[in-house]
Amino acid sequence: MIPAKFDYVRPSSVEEAVSALQSAGEDAKILAGGQSLLPVLRLRMAAPSTIIDLGGIPELKRIGEDDQYVMVGAMATHHEVMRNDLVTRHVELIAQATETVADPQVRHRGTLGGALAHADPAGDLGAAALALDAEFVILGSGGTRLVTAQDFFQDYFTTAIGEGEILTMIRFPKYTGWKSHYEKFNRVAQAWSMVAVAVALKVDGGTISEARVGLTNMGSTPIRATGVEQALVGNAAGPDVAKAAAEHALEGTSAPSDADAAADYREHLAKVLTGRAVLAAAG
Amino acid sequence: MTTTAEPTTTGEIGKARVRKEDQRLITGRSRYTDSITPPGTVHIAVVRSTIARATITSIDKSEAEKAPGVFGVYTAADLGAEEVGLPCAWPITPDQKAPQRPVLAVGRVNFSGEGVAVVVARSAAAARDAAELVEVDYEPLDPVLDMEAAAQDGAELVHPDLGTNVSATWVFDSGQAGTGGDVAEAIKAAEADSDSVVVRRRFRQQRLIPAFMEPRSCVVDPTGEQLTIWAATQVPHILRTMTTVTLGVPESKLRVIAPDVGGGFGGKIGVLPEEMLCVLLAQKLGKPVKWTETRSECMLTAHHARDQIQDLVMTAKKDGTITGFDVHLYADMGAYLGLVGPGVPILGAFMFNAIYKIPALKFTCSNVFTNKTLTDAYRGAGRPEATFAVERMLDELAVELGRDPMELREQNWISHEEFPFTTVVGLTYDTGNYEQATQRAMELFDYAGLRREQEERRRNNDPVQLGIGISTFTEMCGLAPSRVLGSLDYGAGGWEAANVRMLATGKVEVTTGASAHGQGHETAFSQIVADKLGVPFEDVEILHGDTQVAPKGLDTYGSRSLVVGGIAIVNAADKVIEKAKKIAAHLLEASEDDLEFGGGQFTVKGTDKGKAIQEIAFAAFMAHDYPEGMEPSLDSDAVFDPENFSYPHGTHLCAMEVDTETGRVALRKYVCVDDIGNVINPLIVEGQVHGGLAQGIAQALFEEANYDDQGTLVNATFVDYTVPSAADLPSFTTETVSTPSTTNPLGVKGVGEAGTIASTPAILNGVLDAVRHLGVDDIEMPTTSQRVWRALQVAKGHSVQETPSDTHSPGAGLGSIDPNNPKGEVQ
């Protein structure tokens, strides 16, 4: 790989990272796992003046919990996330979506925070994070602020992270005992999602009491399928209910067209996969 | 693995040895071309056209020349290379139109990615940085992209000076050749006969990218007495000769080395503009020059493959007997002719009749220029296209006649009692047993059971339907008998050379002109030599890939290494034994006729007197006591020119589930039983078959090089060009059966391309078998889930959007990043 020339900084604390980012100006890029940044550098589609590598900040890799939340450091790798007991116990949907990301090599390098901050609507983690009402801890020179998932994803590759700010942590409310599934459809196993559906259900005595549904690659951001959620709640988790709920999957979407899937096919897939994801989650 | 025939020798041959080269290759001790950097090396980067067809109005090098570390920026004119043309070694017709293929564009560019200028710098990074500073102004012209339209009169011309886009039209007509009947008459007769059917189909072979693992690279060192070229090539010997032909450097002043080469699949048989640029620059600057391409350059400019339109007419009696086959092809050459590109379709010409007794066959192929990357050989080269056509047509005929597709095949194939069999195109198949391979494959597959399941799913209107795909392929490989190549106007022979020498200490060195790039030659050849000479496997060293070490050869392609190169080694080893026998007889004071040789020992018959071949080697080295009238040496050369091709065959069966709700095709079971004659190393054979299957299946389901309407390759990265991985493929069931070839002393047939050639039609036949009852009768390759779903919608009478194939694909590529419009924050 021969990228254009850049300066390289490897801070050892988040404070250093923020100050490095601010002094580097608007052309700086942050290197997390590099799984999207490096290809872009290699193709010279980006030529940042400075790269700030967050790989030297141990605290950004921590995964912990309190009473209400599982807290995942932005630099925890996909592999670490999907194998973490707290994650699999309390936010299994995140582990399930993470397992579908690319291939083992990528999952050992790529990070949860990097993927979410990259905000590619074809990425798998946005829909799951959105469905689970994740909260994003963002650090800037003025200190830390907390942003909801609904506010975090703004457009293609655009998030609430401002200039001079760094995403340090993602925290997930605990969904202990919920059932979930991530239904992904792609062209080859390591490819990005053409469409995918993230579903988490709280099932009490055979009836769905709460539902969270997120869609991958059905618009310029991950999409929360609230219509599907509403259609599920209060019903028994069966094929007819799943199918009827899936009819709401396209509300609020604007499916892109590309070589793998024109919009009509994507829309069709979104409905089929939503039904399947609900059934698989209800298991 | 099952081998029903006795191997011709015992011991090493037939043993499933792990490959001896792998220790070096998988522990990072390999040395590829890019690992080689002689002192003082300068690096080049090529400035490439971003436009498919344009006139170059100006090239401004000034900024690049001032960039740090840059030694110079050159155009073809600056190098005095405007007249240089890269070679095409296969003029398929006397009037073939061949444009000059320049080392760098002269005045105009003809495909996106064509080199326009070259930057020489202290480092590869400096060269690449400066390449971005070269300003090229273009006057864009409408690109010629559709091969069929391009072949018509009045079409816009890629090369106006040639007066046409049709490079050549090549015809084989069995009626004219006297090897079979007249196809036009067969069609006329069938049309007039109510007891016959005429099946007309058009198939498209999409454009593929060979996608070898190691990108191409070249280092040229001019500082010695000879000019040394290291290259990531399959063909070091051909590269040497062609460098002479292209640039006039005397062949004796050239040494070509192909060090470890990371795959090729035919993609590295070319002579590259960049290789010639390195030679020209090394001569000009007097310094070693290195070029290593990026993956994107590789996808964009290394030759592509397939890309044919096939118009086919098959006639048959209603009882199933095939009476004629008319084949008309358009083959997209791209912007220029590759080294053997024009001949690739011709390599398929003789395989459209495959294993069937077709009485009349006509083959017509028009090679057409377009403003795309040139096409040339890729695993199978011509034969996958032919096999696809005939195996798909057999299924179409079966549908037309309401017959079981396997039964229809059996009715028409050459039965095992009929070998040797001379086909309608005049080739003589020496051996084969289609019944045997098929019977075994059907057993392993549980054909009857799967047909029952299929029935059930159809009856229940199951959303997941089952398809069963068949391909009973054969191919011609082991390229090739030199006289046959001569009759096809190919610009070289097809022999291979070997040298076997016994060292003073009894070890054996073997040189071969077959230069491996991942196949396992070192292991398989060592097994052969160990058996022939009766020496330990570990004592044999195979040397190759350096014209100073193995000066004579025609290299590796067309499944030829074992069946041609391996036989040359056998013949050289036989000569070693012959010489050793004379010395042994002399030392044992016996008559040569009284000696027998086995297990490395010469023994006087009926006695315990004997000498090991290593002792004879030592005696020859010392030369103190050897027979009058002979040289004190066992070393022997051989050049083997086969008298015939090798005709492996096999029966491939695939079961797949087709999800009618999503269009997803999921392979469930793949069984193949291949007859490749005797097997030297079953583990290597299995590896070849697995890899071959993956590539053939990839054509059927996954891969396609897509150009947009401006002639830009839109999927030039591995995220967009979807090569499948193991995760996308089922666990293959592979076996072999054997009817040993009678045209070579090992009884072997080629296996390198078999899996690729056989598998593509098996998949397509299976996909269509799953959905045909729903009203779908064809789906273009690759049969992606979207295409399957759309075909089902159309069959149901629903209107659907067109499948776009030429847009950049958010979600499939760099996620949603559009390379033409890169925006957004990347973390």
From TrEMBL, chain A:
InterPro entries per UniProt: CO_DH_flav_C (IPR005107), CO_DH_flav_C_dom_sf (IPR036683), Diverse_Substr_Oxidored (IPR051312), FAD-bd_PCMH (IPR016166), FAD-bd_PCMH-like_sf (IPR036318), FAD-bd_PCMH_sub1 (IPR016167), FAD-bd_PCMH_sub2 (IPR016169), Mopterin_DH_FAD-bd (IPR002346)
State what protein this is by name. Answer: Xanthine dehydrogenase family protein subunit M
Keywords, comma-separated and alphabetical? FAD, Flavoprotein, Oxidoreductase
Tell me which residues make up the FAD-binding PCMH-type domain: 1-177
Mind telling me which PROSITE patterns this protein's record contains? FAD_PCMH
Q: Which PANTHER family match?
A: XANTHINE DEHYDROGENASE SUBUNIT C-RELATED
Automatic annotation (TrEMBL), chain B:
Cross-referenced InterPro entries, in alphabetical order?
Answer: Ald_Oxase/Xan_DH_a/b, Ald_Oxase/Xan_DH_a/b_sf, Ald_Oxase/xanthine_DH-like, AldOxase/xan_DH_MoCoBD1, AldOxase/xan_DH_MoCoBD2, AldOxase/xan_DH_Mopterin-bd_sf
Gene3D superfamilies, per the entry: Aldehyde oxidase/xanthine dehydrogenase, a/b hammerhead, Aldehyde oxidase/xanthine dehydrogenase, molybdopterin binding domain
Q: Does the keyword Oxidoreductase apply?
A: yes
Listed SUPFAM superfamilies: CO dehydrogenase molybdoprotein N-domain-like, Molybdenum cofactor-binding domain
Superkingdom, taxonomy of origin: Bacteria
The segment annotated Disordered runs over 795-827
Pfam families according to UniProt: Ald_Xan_dh_C (PF01315), MoCoBD_1 (PF02738), MoCoBD_2 (PF20256)
Provide the Aldehyde oxidase/xanthine dehydrogenase a/b hammerhead domain boundaries. 27-142
- Per UniProt, which keywords does this protein have? Molybdenum, Oxidoreductase
This protein's name: Xanthine dehydrogenase family protein molybdopterin-binding subunit
